[in-house]
Structures are given as structure tokens and as C-alpha cells.
Design a protein that fits this description.
The protein is mainly β and 83 residues long. Helix content is 5%, strand content 51%. Strands 1, 2, 3, 4 and 5 form a five-stranded antiparallel sheet that branches. It is globular, with a radius of gyration of 13 Å. It starts with 16 loop residues before the first strand and ends with a helix.
Length: 83
């Protein structure tokens, strides 16, 4: 990702895998292993873009709120890296 204002950039591995249950309501439930890129507007992480790694789940409400939980979860704020 690149900050267009400053030119700061960060490259990272987001080659994780997920099984996603999508519901008619618009809700989703992800079972994830290894790193994926997650954009958060509302949820249990602050607003931003994150590389989330480990073995975890992501619940997405019909309104888009995201809840990341699991026994092994590491988050790295891409926004902080390119500020």
C-alpha cells in the first residue's frame, strides 16, 4: 500500500486462506488461516487497514461492522506504517 500524500509505502504478505459463509442478510462469517488484508470502518479494531494473521474468525454484520476474534490473532496497522 502507498500513501499518495507522502509516498510512504509498505509491502506485506497477505496470502492467507479463508472459508466464507455469506448470508442473505448481507452478513458474512470468515474462518481464516494466515495473513489477509482487512479494512475496518466499524468494529472491534480501530478504523483503518490491517494485516491480520494467525488462526481466527471475522464476523461481518449486515451493516459492515467487523469483529476479529480467535485463539491466535496478530494485527499490524498498515495505516500506521505508511503515515
Amino acid at each position: 500500500m502507498t500513501n499518495k500524500e507522502t509516498g510512504a509505502h509498505h509491502d506485506t504478505d497477505v496470502s492467507g486462506s479463508a472459508v466464507v459463509d455469506a448470508h442473505a442478510s448481507g452478513a458474512q462469517f470468515w474462518r481464516v488461516v494466515d495473513p489477509v488484508l482487512v479494512g475496518v470502518g466499524d468494529g472491534n479494531l480501530a478504523r483503518g487497514m490491517y494485516v491480520v494473521d494467525g488462526v481466527y474468525t471475522i464476523g461481518i454484520s449486515p451493516t459492515g461492522s467487523k469483529t476479529v476474534t480467535g485463539p491466535v490473532v496478530a494485527t499490524d496497522s498498515v495505516c500506521d506504517r505508511i503515515a
